[in-house]
Design a protein that fits this description.
By secondary structure, the chain is α/β, with parallel strands linked by helices. Helix content is about 40%, strand content about 15%. It has 3 helices and 5 strands, in the order ααβαββββ. It has a 5-stranded mixed β-sheet. It is elongated, with a radius of gyration of 23 Å.
Amino acid sequence: MAGAVVAVVALCGLGVQSFRGDRTVGAQLAGPVVRNAEVDNAYYHCLDVQTRSLVAPGQTVSFTGTDPYSVITLLQAVGSWITVADPPSGATARLSLLYGQGHGCLGTVVVAYYAAAHGGPVVRVGSGDEVAGNGPPPPSPL
């Protein structure tokens, strides 16, 4: 008898949790959430393509600027394949993000500064991909 009561309570609990899990998955698959995830993926892919147009895998890089958000964003986009120079002075290129450009990756472009043999640094802007719009991607709902 007690075993039957435990089984009924357990089945009711599993049913409630199953319903809640289904609602959670349904919310995550809702149009706005999926669209935001697609924009997020496109943004970081765009930054990756632009960075690859500036430096090749195996070349050392450092980050320029004092904005930690830019460094974190670049690491999220290209951290899997770049080599960070240690010390930074030995880097092939210094990378940074330039915001509010009206083109590039939601208005953001990757910029590389290279040391020149004579004179000031050589500056190049990344190319190869664009995501229309302005501002960073939408925040994650999690």
